[in-house]
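Recall from the previous lesson that a structure prediction takes nothing but the amino acid sequence as input. Here we apply that procedure to Type 1 glutamine amidotransferase from Niastella soli. The sequence below is the only information supplied.
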Amino acid sequence: MATQKLKGKRVAIITDNGFEEVELTSPLQALKEAGVNAQIISPEQDKVKAWDHDHWSKELPVDVQIDSAHPEDYDALVVPGGVMNPDHARTNEKCIAFVKHFLEAGKPVAAICHGPQLLIETGMLKGRTMTSYPSIKTDLKNAGVNWVDKEVVVDNGLVTSRSPKDLEAFNRKMLEEIAEGIHEHA
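The prediction returns the following tokens.
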């Protein structure tokens, strides 16, 4: 992969409290190692709190609060999972509008585990092929998605994976799609 194509790219990681820790920290590390400027965007003010399997975990600093975030400033979007994070974010109109920008513009979007729940709220998934944590399979199908059970699925710049066990493949495809840049609408 051409790491040169990633240098200087800006990526938003949208999250709320209750994201699955490794589903944010692993992609964030991969992005930073590739020379990408990754920023955490959240409805929370200063810090956002992680969930680690069955308990609260570390807090990470919020780089930009959603009220001040401008999606046009970013080249791509990452949506970590966790049960609570996307469930809270999908009720926030500013989070939904932020995500919708990336799908409308054909910018790369990478969502893992329960993260696609936030994407459903955009109403822009019909006809897309995706995967997710199995418990939201029906939600995605009801949104018009062709759901498949694979470690990573790429559909015209949209990267999805099932769970933390898929992070290696997820991170690799996420970086490839970001390097490619804007995708034509399907």
